[in-house]
């Protein structure tokens, strides 16, 4: 007989990154997915309390209006609008950390105490648990809501989020506590102990200890961002809104309702890209990693190895032609700074790549091609040439490598020149292959994006 499903939501710690978790909650609400068990550490504990009391609208409003002065005492949002103001704010924070044992979070504490409905949480059928750490023993305190003394839930939630030494430790009944992330920043075990037999684990990938488990006896669905969610004290409204949207999109992708890895596509759009470009991508990869003669074999082999690493998505995902193609497309988007916090169609994605790549470029691919020829003929010049490459931005390198790829595949540039560049910068080479595909056949009906590099 099948046991009853008890779905658990595990919310990790990560300070201002916690806005991402509200995006996950938004996706769950849209899909009418509920949770029977909620556990959290640090900001995950605070967000978890809002989930259990069902205060979604307030959670969204709180995060959308979050800024530095809404969290910390003696800090104003306008302090961070100028470089001098930012320096002054961090000097003030450093003084508080050194002299007073951490910054005061009076505004956040007031917000928590004013909005927390302890009785509603206690009466909820949802199980709720948090993690904090007692000091100086550094003993983890895993507490279900039944373990928290009446009237002290806000105290323990704030203790779980006391990211010492940045923020002051919390004292409760003559005991001192600090952030639960010191012992378990993603409390999956606690959720299992509280009865969860299926888990969504939202990992903010912040500083903190996450106990390593190779496997659990129950299914665990991890939700993580490809993108940097920012420093844990970056309470910037634009960043917060972006992180909320990324949390929503990543959840929909994890559930298979959107396509994409780093970027998000409407269902079926990745298949459209694959239908159009898969054969060309495979052909280009084969041509670029094939040695023309024994002398060029090392460059070709190095390129093949480096491309395989750059195109790998996740530790357990094997390279396939389809995965390679989508990683090529997404690396092009990343290097050209496409916004990841929105949903693309294949047409819009490709049009945006074409537009951004077509912006003026001051670097001359012909000059770099000649330099790479010299490296092939005289390897002792490699340090100087690749030093020039490294001094450029990824976007600048992408322009040059793309022209080299276009030239190599059209026969106007020696293949070893492109292979050397690609072995040194495999992310740019991977992206360049996709841009070459767009140059051969765009979805916009325009003239090809790229032209052969001129010697």
Description of the structure:
- This protein has 18 helices and ten strands.
- α11 packs across α18 and α14 packs across α16.
- The protein is an alpha/beta fold and 455 residues long.
- Helix content is 49%, strand content 10%.
Descriptive key words:
Acyl_Trfase/lysoPLipase, 8-stranded mixed β-sheet, two-stranded parallel sheet, about 450 residues, alpha/beta, Patatin-like phospholipase family protein, disordered C terminus, 10 strands, PNPLA_dom
Query: What is the tally of helical segments?
Result: 18
> Secondary-structure element order, as H and E?
EHEHHHHHEEHEEHEEHEHHHEHHHHHH
Strand content: 5-15%
Low-confidence region ranges: 97-101, 442-455
In a few lines, what is going on in this structure?
This protein has 455 residues and is of the alpha/beta class.
Task: Give the SSE map.
Elements: E1 7-11, H1 19-30, E2 37-41, H2 43-52, H3 56-64, H4 83-100, H5 106-115, H6 118-123, E3 127-135, E4 139-144, H7 153-160, E5 170-172, E6 175-179, H8 188-193, E7 198-202, E8 220-223, H9 237-254, E9 264-265, H10 269-288, H11 297-311, H12 321-335, E10 343-344, H13 346-357, H14 365-377, H15 382-390, H16 394-410, H17 415-424, H18 426-440
Parallel strand pairs: 1-2, 1-7, 2-3, 7-8, 9-10
Antiparallel strand pairs: 3-4, 3-6, 5-6
Helix pairs in contact: 1-3, 1-9, 10-12, 11-17, 11-18, 12-18, 14-16, 14-17, 16-17, 16-18, 17-18
């Amino acid at each position: 007989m099948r046991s009853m499903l008890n779905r658990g939501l595990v919310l990790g710690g990560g300070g201002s990154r916690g806005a991402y978790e509200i995006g996950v909650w938004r996706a769950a609400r849209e899909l009418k997915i509920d949770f029977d068990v909620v556990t959290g550490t640090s900001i995950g504990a605070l967000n978890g309390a809002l989930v259990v009391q069902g205060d979604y609208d307030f959670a969204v409003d709180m995060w959308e209006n979050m800024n530095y002065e809404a969290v910390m005492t003696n800090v104003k949002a306008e302090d961070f609008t100028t470089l001098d103001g930012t320096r002054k704010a961090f000097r003030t924070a450093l003084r508080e950390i050194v002299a007073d044992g951490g910054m005061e979070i009076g505004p956040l504490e007031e917000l928590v105490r004013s909005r927390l409905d302890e009785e509603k949480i206690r009466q909820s059928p949802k199980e709720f648990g948090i993690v904090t750490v007692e000091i100086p023993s550094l003993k983890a305190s895993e507490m279900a809501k039944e373990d928290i003394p009446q009237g002290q839930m806000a105290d323990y939630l704030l203790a779980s989020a006391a990211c010492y030494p940045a923020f002051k430790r919390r004292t409760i009944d003559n005991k001192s506590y600090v952030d639960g992330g010191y012992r378990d920043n993603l409390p999956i075990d606690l959720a299992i102990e509280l009865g969860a037999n299926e888990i969504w684990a939202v990992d903010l990938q912040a500083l903190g200890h996450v106990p390593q488990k190779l496997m659990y006896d129950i299914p665990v669905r991890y939700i993580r961002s490809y993108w940097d969610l920012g420093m844990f004290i970056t309470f910037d409204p634009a960043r917060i809104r972006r992180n909320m949207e990324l949390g929503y999109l990543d959840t929909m992708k994890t559930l298979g309702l959107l396509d994409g890895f780093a970027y998000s596509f409407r269902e079926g759009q990745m298949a459209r890209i694959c239908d159009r470009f898969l054969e060309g991508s495979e052909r280009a990869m084969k041509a670029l990693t094939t040695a023309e003669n024994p002398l060029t074999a090392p460059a070709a082999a190095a390129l093949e190895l480096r491309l395989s690493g750059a195109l790998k998505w996740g530790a357990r995902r094997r390279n396939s032609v389809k995965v390679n193609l989508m990683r090529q497309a997404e690396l092009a988007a990343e290097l050209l700074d496409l916004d990841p916090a929105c949903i693309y169609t294949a047409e819009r994605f490709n049009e945006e790549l074409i537009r951004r790549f077509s912006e003026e470029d001051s670097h001359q691919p012909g000059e770099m091609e000649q330099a790479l020829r010299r490296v092939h003929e005289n390897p002792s010049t490699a340090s100087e040439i690749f030093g020039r490459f490294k001094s450029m931005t990824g976007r600048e390198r992408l322009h040059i490598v793309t022209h080299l790829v276009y030239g190599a595949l059209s026969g106007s540039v020696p293949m070893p020149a492109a292979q050397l560049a690609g072995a040194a910068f495999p992310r740019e080479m991977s992206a360049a292959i996709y841009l070459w595909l767009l140059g051969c056949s765009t979805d916009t009906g325009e003239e090809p994006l790229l032209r052969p590099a001129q010697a």
